[in-house]
Structures are given as structure tokens and as C-alpha cells.
User: Fold Alanine racemase from Micromonospora sediminimaris.
Amino acid sequence: MGRERATLADVARRAGLSKTAASMVLNGREGTRLSAEAHQRVFAAAEELGYRPNVAARSLRTRKTATIAFVSDIVATTRFAGGLIRGALDAARERDHVLLITETQGDATFERYAIEAILDRQVDGVIYAAMATRRLAVPPAILGGPVVLLNATSPEPLPCVLPDDEGAGAMIAETLLAQGHRDRIALIGRNRQKELDPEISLAADARLRGIRSTLAAAGVALLTEGFCPEWLPEHGYAAMRTLLDRPTRPTAVICMNDRLAFGAYQALGEAGLSIPGDLSVISFDDDPIAAWLRPGLSTAALPHEQMGRRAVEVLLDGGDGGASLVPMPLRRRRSVAAPDA
Amino acid sequence: MGRERATLADVARRAGLSKTAASMVLNGREGTRLSAEAHQRVFAAAEELGYRPNVAARSLRTRKTATIAFVSDIVATTRFAGGLIRGALDAARERDHVLLITETQGDATFERYAIEAILDRQVDGVIYAAMATRRLAVPPAILGGPVVLLNATSPEPLPCVLPDDEGAGAMIAETLLAQGHRDRIALIGRNRQKELDPEISLAADARLRGIRSTLAAAGVALLTEGFCPEWLPEHGYAAMRTLLDRPTRPTAVICMNDRLAFGAYQALGEAGLSIPGDLSVISFDDDPIAAWLRPGLSTAALPHEQMGRRAVEVLLDGGDGGASLVPMPLRRRRSVAAPDA
DNA sequence: ATGCTCTGCTAAATCAGTTTAGCGACGTGG
DNA sequence: CCACGTCGCTAAACTGATTTAGCAGAGCAT
Assistant:
């Protein structure tokens, strides 16, 4: 790429000045005593030649590359990754940076490759992202420079960006309470593994905490809590069927994510029950499917783009070193209503 | 990043040789007359020091960066992008390259920024990707180096990688014919804009061609063709309801994509019709939702990862300069059966 | 003994920037 | 009249690799 590009030397020559002068002017160095006229000439020359500095040459000297490494365990399949990347991309562009993306797939060999590629290229910082909110071990090799954890925490005291799952849980509980639901609120998606092992998930426990504490504050307890081995539609379907077999039918169901909710919709459809007439449903994530369901599913949205954006901001502008909790906004659709009187 | 890394000079010193010798040995240069012993010493020294070449320094001289730019119109929201990126990432890693990702969002300013970032960094090649299979205009500035179009074509004669939508259409038609469906096959998702304007979509027309020619070869014509302003669930829902109002009910429905099929499922569920007992449904894309539906939706999968992978291969290993059609495999699930006898 | 080739290796230039150290001209105070 | 400081600018070093040009010594033929 890059046909005969103009170099700094070309600019300097055209401006009738030295490379030093040109460099200083173009970098807006303070405290230099170059005349206003010299400034003009350099800018003009650079403009006329369409000059753009060679990043390799510059970073050889300065050790800065205006490049951020985005390392994640799994990039694809999930649109979650896409959102994180897009947010990061936007924020990076605003700060004149670019993203170098690598994926470890949780594989040690791939991780090593990613780390080496990053170190070889002297990136200015690393965003280490996980696809499921969880705790992970950061490879020590990258701790030499700035690191931000995205959708993850680690044993090391590194700045991290997380969705506010607990807040979302509270908000969801409040939403149901506000509609008048009380003692017949059920939950689908209990899962000890997810709740207890932070290396698997931080979201399950946080969401549950938010829900429970808010209900408890209103003097309400969950009617039942359906277990699910995974948070997939088929498990939501099964859990909902079990729920409908019980003597007391709930007035509202909280699903731990939208895929479970989708399964719940399927079971309710088969049972001939209507949402939200017979039962309200509310959930977490704002998977695209939430908007496609009939009726649309009310859900607390994972703020992917915000998170990706925040990660870059913390990395480049410096964070307070702690955790950034990004709020999960509630998407209000038609799946929640007041219970039958 | 990168605490005191060893440089080539360090390696040379430790090996008791010149930088020249060290460089040649490590690059495996042919035709050099360095002794076997010199080779040993250099390798040993490099190993002991954990030497890794500085990419900036190297590329300053060689103009090679082992970096590929992945430019796309829209990265996020769609998991399609994720698949393309992941495939490209894998293939790049196998060839010791790394991906620099930028997004234009279809915005001229952003595109300019992306191009400049790419040129400044002297990437070895560019993958220009579109999220919807379509024809696009490649900015002339990147034509100085190797370019591969991914999921897109362009007026310029550039190598491109596309899904085989026409083949998929044919395969879908054959699948229905093989099950015994004949004169009562309907289609949902006609859309003149998509079919006629290659800048919007190449897929619509290709899929339709494949379907029609295969049916025609069997002496069959489509029963009806439902129009849809967009390929979203709500439009599939509406189209399916219209279809059900007609006197002859089809035995099978081909949806132009899975989101339409999802809408169709919703309409069928409401109408109390069962899939595939009353009606078979088949579709394109293999959106994750296809596997989540009850029954699972048979669909021709967009081969995202293969395509991303292929793009890198063509870029780096050299393609034949033409279009690479990547086959769309049929995911057989339970939504297709023989029509009622 | 001289010239030649071949072997094994190295000094120095180069890539395109940034940064350090300092030079000549001018004005000014003693 | 001279020392000194300020102004406006530049030469040269430096970053870490690759690459070109070429040197010293050995072996061989004449």
C-alpha cells in the first residue's frame, strides 16, 4: 500500500526548514521558538504534499503506536462481541487510535500467540475482554503496560468495566412491584454453578442479588425458582412447563436471560396462555430476539457498546483504577402488565 | 508494554557475531555462507534472550507489517460480522498475521479515517467487507495494495468472496421436491428493491434464481410469492397470515431468511397449524434462532467463518483473481416433512 | 611469487521519524 | 567595547531492524 508518500524530509525541504523544525511544528511542540511564519510554511507544505507521518518510523522512536489491542476469549457467534468491539472502535477513533483484534478461544497456545503479536507491535494498551461476565486470569506478560478488563474482573487489581447486573436485577424487581405483582413472582434460570463460580459467571449471582434484595425490601419473596442447566431456550421451555404444572400459577416470571424467556414464550404459547394477560414476562440481555417476540419482551439491556466505549476511555484517559459499572437500561415492551385483579 | 526487550544487537553480541550475521541467520536467508556453528550460536543466543524482532523497526525497512486491515461497513449488532472476523482471525493467525479492524458505518468521514489509519500503518493488505451481500465502491486509495472483497463485489475487477446463494436456493428447492412437495410451494420475502439493486443486496436475486430454476427444471412453479418490505419477523408474520387467507393452503413455505421464518412460525402458531405436519418451512441464513425454534428450522447456513477464512487465504496466498463462492450447507432440522398424502 | 576465486563474515547505509545539544545573530546592560 | 542572554533555527544522534558493498584470509593454479 501507499504509493510514494511524502516524508517529513519532503515537507521540511518544501518549507525551506529543517526536519527538526517541521517535526516540532507538526507535533505542536510547546516552548519552541519557531516563528509564526515558519509554522505557516510547514503547515502549508504538509497540506500541499498530503503529508502523513509513517507510524512505524514514529513508533520506533517514541514507542507509541496509537494502537490498542483488543484481546478476547471468543469473538464470534455472539453479537455481544460485536457490540463491545463497535463501542471500542468508536471511542478509539475519537482518540485517533486503532484496534488490533485477537482471540484466544480460551486456548493457551492461541493466547501465547496473541500476547506475542501484541508485544511485538508495541501496542499502547490492552483491552482484555470476556464474552461471559466472569473472573479470569490475565497473562502476566501484558501487565507491563496499561490493561483494562472488559466484562471481566481478575485477581489482580486492574481497572475493569462491567455491566451493572445487580442494579438491573433491582430494576426488574421494582418494575414488577410497581405493576402490582407481589407474592406470585416466579424466576426461571437458577443455576448453582453460574451463581457460585465467578470464573464461569458473575452475572447470575449479581442479578439474583438485585432481584432478591429489592423484593425483600418490599416484604416479598419469590414464589418459585426454576433451575436450568444452561440458559438456553429449551431449558426455559422446560422450566416454564414445570412451573405451569404447579398448583399456584405465577402472575409474573423473571427469566435470567432472553433466551430462557424465548423458551418460556414457547411453553406459554403451547399452553394457550397469553402474555401479558395471563402472565407477565421480564428478562435480561436485550438479545435481538426480545424485540422480535410477540409481544415484545421487556428486558434489561446489556450495554455492549457503552461498555466497549468505556473500556477505551478508561484505558486512554485513565480511570480511577476501580470497577466501572455500566447501567443496564430497561427496554420496556409489551410483556409486562398488571396482574389480573 | 514490553519491558527491556532484547534487540538484534544483543543477540549478535551474545553470539559473538555481527548484527548482519544474526539478521541473516534468523531470517533463514539462503545463499549466505555463514557456518553451521554460527547458526547454532545465533539461535542459542536468541533463545536465551527470548529475542523477538521489533515489528516497527522491521517494517520501517521492509514495508511489511504482517498486519491485515479488516474494513467493514458495519461491525456490530449482527453476529454475521463476528463469524467473518473469527474466520479471518483464524486464517490470519495460521499465517502469522494479525488483524487491524476498522468500521466505516457507511459514513464518508469514518471511511476516510479508516483509510488513513490503514495507509499510515502500511498494512500488507485489505479485506473490505460488507454486512449484507452487495456491490459496493471501493475507495481508490486502498487500491495501491492487495484488496479482497468479502461478502461483496465491486465495479473494479477485484477478487471477492461470496456465499453461494444461488446454489443454496437450488438446494432448498431440491429438498422440498425430494420430500414430494410440488405445486403448493409458497415463498415469503419477495422484495423488488433487494432483488434489483445490487448495491442493496445480491442475495435476494441469487436465492430466487436458484429456487426458480430448480423448480422449473422439475416442471413446478411457485404457488404464491409474498412481498415483504424488509426481511424482519413482523413482515414474515404478516406475509404468512396473508398466505393463510388464500383458498389453497401451501404444503411448504420457503422464507428468504430465518427472521422471516420466525415471523411465519408465530403466525402458524396463532393459527393453530403445526410444523411440519400441516406445513413445511425452510429458509436461509442459519441465524441462531433457527436452532431455538420449535421445531428446529431447516435452513441453508451462511458460511461466515469459511468466508472470513477464505478472504485471508485469497489475500495472502493469492487467489485466481475471480470470485470465490463459498457453499451454504443445509442444516437439516425438523421443519420439513412430506406433505399430507 | 603472483593472481584468482571462494569462504566467512562485517561496516555502514538505510528506512522515517523524534530528540538532544548547540550555533550564529542580535540586543542589551555594565 | 565586551560579556551575556535571547531568539530562531539546525546538525547529528537515535530508535531496531534489513540490506548493500566489500574485506581478510585460505586454497589453488600458473
